Each structure stands twice: as C-alpha cells, then as structure tokens.
Amino acid sequence: MSISVTIGDQEYFPDIEKVRYEGPGSDNPLAFKYYDENRVVGGKKMKDLFRFSVAYWHTICGAGVDQFGSETHQYQWLRNPDPMQRARDKLDAAFEFTSKLGMAYYCFHDRDLAPEGEDIKDSEKNLRKMTQLALNKQNESGVRLLWGTANLFSHPRYMNGAATNPDIHVVAHAAAQVKAALETTVELGGENYVFWGGREGYSTLLNTEMKKEIDHLAMFLAKARDHGRKAGFKGTFLIEPKPMEPAKHQYDYDVNAVIAFLKSYGLEDDFKINIENNHATLAGHTFAHEIQTAADAGLLGSLDVNQGDPHCGWDTDEFLYNLYDAVEIMIVLLRNGGLGAGGMNFDAKVRRSSTDLEDIFIAHILSIDTLARGLLIATDILEKSDYLDLVKRRYGSFDTTAGRAFEAGKLKLEQLAEIAECSGEPLRTSGKQELFESIINRFL
Ligand code: XUL
Ligand code: CO
196: CA distance to ligand 1 center in Å? Predict the structure, then answer.
C-alpha cells in the first residue's frame, strides 16, 4: 500500500511506505530501530536535536558517475531529455523521498534545483521558476530548507577559482550566481546559506598571488553578506572547510584555518562553520576534533554528515555507519549545547553499485539510526558514568589558589617559577586514556 505524503504528478517510490520507528528488535531494513522522532532525550525531541536533511545533489541528482565510468543508477526522475522537465521531475522525487523518510529539511546547490541557462538571465529565470515550484512543495509537505548554496565549481569558467579567480569577470559571474542563489534561499525561508570553496585554492604558487586571492575571497563574502542581509536573509552564513579536492590546496583548509580567516577579516559575526566528517579526515582530524574546535570559538554552525574510507585518500562521501564516531560526536555536541539553527545534512552518496531504488532509503536509515543510537549511548555515558567527573578531576589543580590565579592572569612568570621551586618535582598523574576508552565501550 502506498501512502499519501507524495504530492507530485507521479509517484517515484510506489513500493515504499512512510518509514516508521519499529524499535531495536526490528529486522525491517526500511524501518528505524533507534530514531524515534518524538522521543525526548536530554529535554529535546530527537527530530529537533538532529534536524536531519537530504542533500539534493547526491541523493536526487547523483547517478553513480565516477572518474572511470558513467551512470549506474537509472532513476526515472533523471531521464527526461528536457532539462526543465527533468528539474521538475527531480523536485517531485526529492519531496516524495524526503517526506517518506520523515526528514524535516533538504539542502541544494542552485544548479541541482534548476539547470544553467544560455546566459546569466536565462539561468536566473530557470532558478526563479523552480523556486516557485519548490515553495509550493515546501508548503504542501512541511519540509523546510536547511541551507542553499551556489555551485561555483562545476562550470569550466571556474577552473581557476570563483571568488579567487585572477579574472574580475569570473569573480563577477560568481557574484551574479551567488546573488540569485541567496535570493532563492531567502524566498524559500532557508535557515542558513553555505559557501564551499572547492575551486578557491591553488595548484602552484609559481602563478599565484595568495594574499590577493584570499583578500578577494573575504571581499566577496562581505559583499554577499551585505546583499543577503538587504534581501532579508536573517540566518547564518556558513563556510565549509575542506583541505583539498578539487583544488590542490584549498584556502578553507580546516576549522582552524576558517576561524583565523573569519577573525582576520571581521566576518565572525555573520559567518559560522559547516563541518563535514570526510573533509575533517582529509585534513588529518577527526569529526569530533573539528566540531569541538568550532564550538570553542563560538562558530559551530551545521554538519555535513558522512564518512570516508580509511583505506582511500579521497572524499568517498559514504553514509556514516561508524557507531564509535557517532558516539564521540554526540558527546561533543551534547556537551556544547547542540547545533542551534544548524542541522545534520547527509552529504553522502550510495555506492556506485548500490543500484536498487530502496538503497537510498536504506542508506539514510543506516546513518539516522547510527546517530540516534550514538545519541542514546552518549547520553548514558554523560549521565550514568563518572566520565565528566574524570575529565573535571584531570584539571582539578586549576581550582586551587595557584591555578585560579594563573587562569585570571595574576601570576607572572617569576611567580610561577617560585611555585615550581616550592612544590618540587610534580607527581606523574596518569591521563587514564584506556579508562576513558573502556567507559565508552562499556556503554556501546
Ligand atoms: C563537496 C561538498 C559540497 C558542499 C556544498 O565536497 O561537501 O557538496 O557541501 O557545496
Ligand atoms: Co559538504
């Protein structure tokens, strides 16, 4: 039996019913085992805590292409030869999929939603048309826009960069595209707007004025911010770091690089950070490290959830299934008050050989359940173990008179030296790493 959540002319997933919570005992691959959207954990409903989102580009537009081969996924909504009809079909499929999965949000690039036209005006016309249709779909379904963005990396004109291109005409073209994408995001009530600078970097310093390019990037973002605010955008602008790929060396390398950039150019009041797991691992960090770094700077915006393959050195964008990682990130998120106006966007794609229609459902359910289970485990660890106490105790010496005076900036280097002389060789206090690890495993 199919259900009535779909509103388009055609039903693309007639054999799939609305995905429901069946509990940990269920063996139904098309049911949630841990994600129970209305279950309250730590004072919040699961759905409000996670704010899950579908990534239009992978789930709806991705057809299994890789560097060595063409499409393997034969989705019906990608078949129409007319690009605008194809865009309408994709929209129908996207809203049917998102509603059946029970996710509250979606995210897109301008070019995912509407095809590029003959020129700027034509592209804008296509985007405006699709924006109206998307607005109708949002109103009918209740699904909302977590963030919009502009694709400033696929078209050949951006081969030398978009905002950092050495040619002002390309920079201007990128600006035209961002202007339209921002206006669309405002019209659709988008809660955030993302900049991912895939081509904002360089291949060789021999031909590159790095400072000039980074100055241009900051100027571009400031002007985009100004336009967005003028157009009524009240949400957060987000920068998504990635160290490389497609650029050899991307300027927004990791969270710390973005924090330094935002603060150097005075952009930190309007911009926060959208962190992606596979980008973190490419930069040599864990997802948890990047999230903690952004949270500590007050710049944690939103998450692109996926995972890489430890045996591949590239951005494989797999659906997150690593429960241990999920527990670690949920501990960090719970300790830092959650995601606010951000969410968890599945910037992930099913494998090229996962060609059944149901595979995109199974993949999302896999990640949603991994995170929900991670949340439950992390909550137990924080509430039922002495984990937090152990961390607190590690820094207990800073609650002494000397420790407090140091933190308040009241001790000079000579005074610290005197304390060292009086107290003698410090005790070797264990860091208890294995104990911490055993606590996590006890609750898994
Ligand atoms: C690329 C990537 C992008 C951004 C949006 O690695 O993550 O899809 O999330 O442009
Ligand atoms: Co991403």
Answer: 6
pTM of this prediction? 0.96
Q: Whose CA is nearest to atom 10 of ligand 1?
A: 196
Identify how many contiguous H helices and E strands the chain contains and give both numbers: 15, 12
What does the alpha-carbon distance between residue 114 and residue 44 come to, in Å, rounded to a whole number? 36
Q: Is the CB of 149 under 6 A from ligand 1?
A: yes
Give the integer Cα–Cα distance in Å for 342 and 117.
31
Domains of the chain from N-terminus onward: 20-384 (3.20.20.150), 387-443 (no CATH)
**pLDDT tens for each residue of the chain, 444 residues long:** 334 444 456 899 999 999 999 999 999 999 999 999 999 999 999 999 999 999 999 999 999 999 999 999 999 999 999 999 999 999 999 999 999 999 999 999 999 999 999 999 999 999 999 999 999 999 999 999 999 999 999 999 999 999 999 999 999 999 999 999 999 999 999 999 999 999 999 999 999 999 999 999 999 999 999 999 999 999 999 999 999 999 999 999 999 999 999 999 999 999 999 999 999 999 999 999 999 999 999 999 999 999 999 999 899 999 999 999 999 999 999 999 999 999 999 999 999 999 999 999 999 999 999 999 999 999 999 999 999 999 999 999 999 999 999 999 999 999 999 999 999 999 999 999 999 999 999 999
Q: Which two tokens mark 178?
A: 């961002």
DSSP 32: B
Q: Which of 36, 110, 112, 347 is catalytic?
A: 112
